[in-house]
Amino acid sequence: MFKIYWTDTEGQSHGAETADLVQALQITKDKRDAGHTFVTMASENPNNVGKQGVDAVVDGKTPDGEDYDWSKAGRAGKPRRGDKVITNKDH
């Protein structure tokens, strides 16, 4: 089940629901194109087990065998090897 919520131009809140993802995305697009604000879609996956995201990294690999090298500490720090550094200070 997908639920779509939006606010009309008078500030009134509305909602709709559908079981079809494509239809939910189309409703969301139509509401945004019509000028409505705070358009959002929510769903709950009943087949989901465990937490969202990677729940285990062993020897640098995710449970499905993919490499995992993301680091929060590295995101705000100095550039990593292979990162492209763009600067405008010389222009």
Pick out its properties.
91 residues, 21% strand, 2 helices
Indicate the low-confidence ranges by residue numbers. none
Describe the strand arrangement of the main beta sheet, using strand numbers.
Answer: 2-1-3
By helix and strand content, what is the structural category? alpha+beta
Query: How much of the sequence is in beta strands?
Result: 15-25%
**How many beta strands in the DSSP annotation?**
3
Helices and strands, in N-to-C order?
EEHEH
Distance between the termini: 52 Å
Please describe the topology of this protein:
Layout: E1 2-7, E2 13-18, H1 21-33, E3 37-43, H2 72-76
Antiparallel strand pairs: 1-2, 1-3
In short:
This protein has helices at about 20-35, 70-75, and strands spanning about 1-5, 15-20, 35-45. With about 90 residues, it is of the alpha+beta class.
Outline the structure in words.
The protein has 91 residues and is α+β, with helices and mostly antiparallel strands. Helix content is 20%, strand content 21%. It has two helices and three strands; from the N terminus they run E-E-H-E-H. Strands 2-1-3 form a three-stranded antiparallel β-sheet, covered by helices on one side. The chain is flat, with a radius of gyration of 21 Å.
